[in-house]
Amino acid sequence: MPRRTWVTADTHFGEQGAIDRFGRPFADVREMDEALLDAINRCVGKRDELLHLGDVFGDLDWKDRGRRREARALLARIRCRRIRLVLGNKDPQSRSFRALFRSADESLTLRVDAPSGKPLRAVCHHYPMRQWRGMRDGSLHLHGHAHGGLEELGRSVDVGVDCWGFEPVLRDELVAMLSVRPLPAGEFVRRQQRRGASDEAARAQPPL
What we know:
Blueprint: E1 5-8, H1 17-21, H2 29-43, E2 49-52, H3 65-76, E3 82-86, H4 95-98, E4 103-105, E5 107-113, E6 119-125, E7 140-143, E8 156-158, E9 169-170, H5 171-179, H6 200-204
Parallel strand pairs: 1-2, 2-3, 3-4, 6-7, 7-8
Antiparallel strand pairs: 1-9, 5-6
């Protein structure tokens, strides 16, 4: 079987507060962690690749040796060894944390095959963007962070577990879904007023 690429985000392993904040149907953090691990291992094969778009753990104090051991032990239970990370706001800015993954980047741009046969660019970031590179030429945008709290914009989608039944989703399925969505209108429309030096007095006025 050829290697497949799966995509996910915002697992927030170990974060009790994620259950109430994001409306997750788990009794406690242990049940949540086990369910998320089971979902990954049920979907992602040993030879597959898992692309995680940030916030692997929640509120992880990487200076705490005990928490570091727990984090390493949890990741070791994922049978897929090819895990690529796009860093989220909860992920420690530490070389030793990044070393747990095949790669760890602030953002990632991929060239993906679409059903039409035309390769497309996929811009992967933890945070959702209103505009991204190649947006008007058909490129896709995969993101996390919003936990389903934003409407989908054009060819972008939230890949977080809260949007996909707490499971990773096949990259090819995302590409097939997004690539048939219409492109933004070609005509440029200004939606923010033009400001200049003559507006300095107006900007100095306090808001009502």
